């Protein structure tokens, strides 16, 4: 049951609400201005207030990457691998209009809006992965290839931006480069990457690597024709949104988010100039400066195969939303998820630490606690909750969706459940010899958390 996963709202969320309310009060009935490419000042606004948004339009991306990624989207859809998520916003449950699948490093998870998604692993050396169909394997391979392409593009883009921060230098080569950089962003918003790293000031390599090594991608799909009740964008009057205003959560600080966008083009219509503002037939990414009503918003159209990068701290300083067009669209959003508490090795390590307090041998029919120290018992209780609420319930609540793609999580989840069961016994009867035999022990206290949830 969903109610078993209830969580109190944090102070941060209440503060956010207060800020949002203040903003809406200031705004009253009026709407804020925003610019699109057909507005004067669009490129200037981009360059001055949204400079960490970089668009790489489709022509700059290798054809084989386009072909394989677009085929991958089709294959994942054919095998019904994408699902709408049940998320919690301000204590209420919502089903996302977009359908999603998380693909990434084996054993990684990503939590957004209180829902933890588990990666369908992409192929990495050292891991044996059984996919439920060769076409799913092919799709995952295409996405790790895209991931690598976007990582390289991101490093280049970051290097370019570091160059522009060295303004005022005497170095003539750098000055020359600066003049190039200072030129207005091109029509496409794509500043041409300088492939020669020779004059690029040194970045802190370790840091750069950490902030650009995407460890997973969250894929989104939506067909707007099947979603008649999309929310209207509330501040600027930008029209229907597929994804509301947000910052991406749980990412490594100052890490880039890279997005590949794919949607069929709308056939040209004569009504093109009939609307003001953004073209409602075309998908856009929209950006605004967080908690700022003075700077106009920016709506950037996205055509088949375009990519955009939100560099460095842009995901923190700005919010973004996705404005729906008319055609179905896929996107692949590559992220450096902050996984210090989100990987399988992490949670197994936690469980093993808790089970250290267990003494004896289940096979011999007797287990007891080594220590009854209150701190130790509390620690076990914490881990017991963590494995139950952050892992097992999250996993089982999402049903059998992962099995559509792979059996990768089945065995680890069985192990976690077994650990949970032992901790449950430790908690219930802390000072008794509480398991009489392996099979009896297994069933004595009865139920795994997934069963509790479905009751
Ligand atoms: O599809 C996109 O362009 C971005 C989607 C997004 O913002 C998200 O998944 O958090």
UniProtKB/TrEMBL annotation:
* Entries under Pfam families matching the protein: FTO_CTD, FTO_NTD
Instruction: Using the UniProt record, give the first listed, main subcellular location.
Output: cytoplasm
Q: Which domain of life is it from?
A: Eukaryota
* Assigned EC number: 1.14.11.53
* Ranges annotated as biased composition (Basic and acidic residues): 437-455
Region of interest (Disordered), ranges: 436-455
Where is this chain's protein located in or outside the cell? Cytoplasm; Nucleus speckle
Q: Which cofactor does it need?
A: Fe(2+)
Read off the InterPro entries from this record: AlkB-like_sf, FTO, FTO_C, FTO_C_sf, FTO_cat_dom
Q: Which reaction does it catalyse?
A: an N(6)-methyladenosine in mRNA + 2-oxoglutarate + O2 = an adenosine in mRNA + formaldehyde + succinate + CO2; a 5'-end (N(7)-methyl 5'-triphosphoguanosine)-(N(6),2'-O-dimethyladenosine) in mRNA + 2-oxoglutarate + O2 = a 5'-end (N(7)-methyl 5'-triphosphoguanosine)-(2'-O-methyladenosine) in mRNA + formaldehyde + succinate + CO2; N(6)-methyladenosine in U6 snRNA + 2-oxoglutarate + O2 = adenosine in U6 snRNA + formaldehyde + succinate + CO2; a 5'-end (N(7)-methyl 5'-triphosphoguanosine)-(N(6),2'-O-dimethyladenosine) in U6 snRNA + 2-oxoglutarate + O2 = a 5'-end (N(7)-methyl 5'-triphosphoguanosine)-(2'-O-methyladenosine) in U6 snRNA + formaldehyde + succinate + CO2
What UniProt keywords apply to this chain's record, in alphabetical order?
Cytoplasm, Dioxygenase, Iron, Metal-binding, Nucleus, Oxidoreductase
Q: Which GO terms describe its molecular function?
A: dioxygenase activity
Which residues belong to any copy of the Alpha-ketoglutarate-dependent dioxygenase FTO catalytic domain? 39-339
Q: Which family does it belong to?
A: Belongs to the fto family.
| Record text on subunit structure and interactions | Monomer. May also exist as homodimer.
Q: What is this protein called?
A: Alpha-ketoglutarate-dependent dioxygenase FTO
Q: Origin organism of this chain?
A: Pogona vitticeps (central bearded dragon)
| Phylogenetic placement of the source organism | Eukaryota, Metazoa, Chordata, Craniata, Vertebrata
């Amino acid at each position: 049951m969903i109610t078993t996963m209830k969580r109190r709202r944090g102070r941060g969320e209440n503060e956010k609400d207060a800020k949002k309310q203040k903003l809406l009060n200031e705004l009253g009935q009026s709407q804020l201005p925003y610019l699109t490419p057909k507005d004067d000042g669009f490129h200037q606004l981009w360059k001055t207030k949204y400079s960490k948004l970089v668009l790489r339009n489709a022509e700059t991306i290798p054809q084989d990457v386009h072909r394989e990624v677009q085929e991958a989207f089709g294959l994942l859809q054919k095998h019904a691998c994408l699902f709408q998520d049940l998320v919690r916003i301000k204590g209420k449950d919502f089903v996302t209009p977009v359908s999603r699948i998380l693909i990434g490093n084996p054993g990684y998870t990503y939590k957004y809006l209180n829902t933890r998604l588990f990666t369908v692993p992409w192929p990495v050396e050292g891991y044996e992965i059984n996919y439920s169909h060769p076409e799913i394997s092919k799709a995952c391979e295409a996405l790790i290839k895209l991931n690598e392409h976007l990582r390289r593009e991101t490093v280049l883009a970051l290097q370019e931006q570091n160059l522009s921060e060295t303004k005022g230098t005497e170095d003539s080569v750098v000055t020359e480069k600066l003049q190039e950089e200072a030129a207005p962003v091109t029509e496409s918003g794509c500043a041409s990457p300088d492939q020669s790293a020779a004059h690029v000031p040194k970045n802190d390599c370790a840091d750069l690597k950490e902030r650009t090594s995407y460890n997973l991608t969250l894929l989104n799909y939506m067909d707007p024709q099947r979603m008649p009740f999309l929310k209207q964008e509330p501040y600027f009057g930008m029209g229907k949104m597929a994804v509301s205003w947000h910052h991406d959560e749980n990412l490594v600080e100052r890490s880039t988010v890279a997005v590949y966008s794919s949607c069929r083009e709308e056939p040209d219509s004569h009504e093109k100039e009939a609307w003001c503002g953004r073209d409602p037939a075309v998908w856009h990414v929209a950006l605004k400066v967080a908690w700022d009503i003075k700077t106009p918003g920016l709506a950037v159209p996205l055509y088949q195969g375009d990519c955009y990068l939100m560099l460095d701290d842009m995901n923190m300083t700005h919010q973004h939303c996705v404005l729906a067009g008319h055609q179905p669209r896929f996107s692949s959003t590559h992220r450096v998820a902050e996984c210090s508490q989100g990987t399988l090795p992490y949670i197994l390590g936690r469980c093993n630490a808790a089970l250290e307090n267990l003494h004896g041998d289940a096979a011999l029919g007797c287990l007891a606690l080594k220590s009854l120290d209150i701190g130790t018992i509390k620690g076990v209780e914490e881990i017991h909750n963590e494995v139950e609420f952050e892992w097992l319930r999250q996993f089982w609540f999402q049903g059998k969706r992962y099995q559509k793609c792979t059996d990768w999580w089945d065995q680890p989840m069985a192990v976690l459940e077994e650990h949970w069961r032992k901790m449950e016994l430790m908690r219930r009867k802390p000072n008794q010899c509480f398991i009489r035999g392996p099979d009896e022990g297994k069933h004595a206290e009865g139920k795994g958390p997934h069963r509790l949830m479905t009751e």
